[in-house]
Design brief:
By secondary structure, the protein is an alpha+beta fold. It is built from 2 helices and 4 strands. Strands 1-2-4-3 form a 4-stranded mixed β-sheet, covered by helices on one side. A hairpin with a 5-residue loop joins strand 3 and strand 4. It is globular and about 30 Å long.
Length: 77
């Protein structure tokens, strides 16, 4: 599994970097995304769900969040 650490950047940079990563991603690929920026912690999970990806959210002890993303997988109904 890949790891994408987006904690050094503030909104909108994490979303831009994630979109660039997604251009190269394959369906079914799994990545763990780490976010620190408050705007990104709210916006990125919502964006990914709207795009139809499966996203699991976990709060990390250092006030960041971890998203586990499965590219192109549909959310269960």
């Amino acid at each position: 599994m890949e790891h994408l650490d987006l904690t050094p950047w503030r909104c909108p940079e994490p979303l831009i970097r994630l979109k660039l990563w997604l251009r190269e991603a394959k369906s079914g690929q799994t990545v763990t995304i780490r976010l620190a920026d408050a705007g990104s912690r709210q916006d990125i999970p919502a964006y990914l769900q709207r795009q139809g990806h499966v996203v699991r959210l976990r709060q990390a002890p250092d006030n960041t969040i971890l998203l586990q993303l499965v590219v192109g997988a549909k959310q269960p109904s």
